[in-house]
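step: validate -> pass
step: tokenize input -> pass
step: predict -> running
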Amino acid sequence: MSLTLDSQHQRAGQTSVAGRLLHVLKHEFLLVLPPTIFFIIGFNLVAVSTNLITGAYLLDLSRFIFATTAALIVGKSVLVADKMPFLRRFDTAPLIRPILFKTAVYWGFVFVARLLEASLDYILHEGMLVGLSAYLLERFSWHRFAFIQLWILVLFLIYVTASEFNTLFGEGELRRILFRHSPTAWKLTRRQRIRTLMRLDRLTAGHSIAQLADPGSDVHRACIGLIAELAASRDTSAALPYAHRPQ
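step: predict -> pass
step: emit ->
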């Protein structure tokens, strides 16, 4: 009897571990999917643009595979980099600062990686380090390199901007704002809520807790008024038909 119970507990434990592992893998996959899709599309646009400039109009499967592989690497690298403390340096600054800072960091990493790739390609082809500097200065296509780097800069700027706004509004909220069709009344209510929240943020940032908690102060009355506005806008949105509300 005890052996049967032990085997059942062991199977239950293995199932539990497998379930947790699948949950972690699914979570990581869902995290890496959006940036990977974005960069697959973006890098293949870079490849197509390069082909058009060089007159190579036929589809090059190797370029597609390379662009897709690079997108997979960048997609995962972006998620890993986001966990690094130094990238959060400007998280409390105005939004333009973290956007430009993260874009510059990502772009710089790719810049260095592409130079290393070109150097490694030369070493593997020639079998020696001698002449590498002359190759980079004389034979390396810096115009093409700069063209692709400008594309990558634009891609990172778009991605980081969207990512920062998604973090600001809340996970998934930016997607609902962009792709759901809401009635005009709901849009007006949402704008009013955003404006009221911004006014409330400025009010709480400029006064102490004691001032906000004092029932006789103008600051307290202003704070209560803004909270009442938020409650009123919530009641307005609740009155809308369920099918018209963002999910």
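step: describe -> DSSP finds nine helices and no strands in the chain.
step: cleanup -> pass
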